[in-house]
């Protein structure tokens, strides 16, 4: 098995960047989801409810970001040193983060049509991982719950086969295969011996960096949004509900917690223990 691709999402719920190498930090890949967008009350906003977020690209620019979107000129964002933190909420977690300023707030408000502000997690040690699946020392940035998400091309091929078979059963033309970007993985593994083998993995090594595989990923409506057209459909939730549903949820990919730090590169060997 080998590492086929690496993906970083500088701002939660915006477009991902595919990179050739990445530094693994205790809370995830360097530069991954250290920013997020919140509403007037400090609650996280995501593309689940605001698909236009998927049209935003953010790239590193010095110690900040350059934002590009379909609604306004590009904007450079760089939180000022010493800016006081404010309390924000991501799901069940209250976290102190730095507000990125009024220009960024106006930019995202114009994009989404609701009051919005961009915040930066200046200290990624503040947010612990769910203690049911991690240790007291495990931390996560503004990712949903865990530092990294691993998916395999073998599982995606099987899922696309199921989708095509279901379309034929309904008398429909099989759709174009879903791309891996629908699932927003951090790392994608190729040459896995069988589909969904990652369900059974407990420890994974990518290159020289070890990880724990702590929990399968339950999937939400975000996977049904085409990141190119921003339109919603029924797949892959419809097909996952048929083939990968238990405990009242549907499942695809596995969450990882680093057990070390270092650099990972596309092409690195991947090994796993069940």
From TrEMBL:
This is MOSC domain-containing protein. Residues 116-273 form the MOSC domain. InterPro entries: MoCF_Sase_C, MOCOS_middle, Pyrv_Knase-like_insert_dom_sf. GO terms for molecular function: catalytic activity; molybdenum ion binding; pyridoxal phosphate binding. Pfam families: MOSC, MOSC_N. It comes from Thermopolyspora flexuosa.
């Amino acid at each position: 098995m080998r590492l086929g691709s690496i993906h970083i999402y500088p701002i939660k719920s915006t477009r991902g960047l595919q990179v050739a190498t990445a530094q693994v930090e205790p809370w995830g890949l360097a530069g991954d989801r250290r920013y997020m967008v919140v509403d007037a009350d400090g609650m996280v906003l995501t593309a689940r409810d605001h698909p236009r977020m998927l049209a935003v690209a953010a790239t590193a620019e010095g110690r900040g970001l350059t934002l590009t979107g379909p609604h306004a000129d590009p904007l450079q964002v760089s939180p000022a040193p010493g800016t006081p933190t404010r309390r924000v909420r991501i799901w069940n977690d209250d976290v102190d983060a730095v507000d990125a300023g009024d220009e960024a707030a106006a930019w995202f408000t114009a994009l989404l049509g609701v009051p919005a502000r961009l915040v930066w997690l200046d200290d990624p040690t503040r947010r612990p991982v769910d203690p049911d699946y991690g240790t007291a020392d495990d931390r996560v940035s503004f990712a949903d719950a865990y530092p990294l998400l691993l998916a395999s091309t073998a599982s995606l091929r099987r899922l696309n086969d199921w989708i095509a078979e279901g379309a034929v059963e309904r008398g429909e033309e099989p759709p174009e295969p879903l791309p891996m970007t629908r699932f927003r993985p951090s790392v994608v593994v190729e040459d896995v011996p069988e589909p969904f083998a990652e369900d059974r993995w407990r420890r994974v090594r990518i290159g020289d960096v070890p990880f724990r595989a702590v929990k399968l990923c339950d999937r939400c409506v975000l996977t049904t949004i085409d990141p190119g057209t921003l339109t919603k459909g029924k797949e892959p939730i419809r097909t996952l509900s048929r083939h990968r549903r238990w405990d009242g949820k549907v499942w695809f990919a596995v969450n990882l917690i680093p057990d070390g730090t270092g650099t990972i590169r596309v092409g690195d060997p991947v090994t796993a223990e069940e």
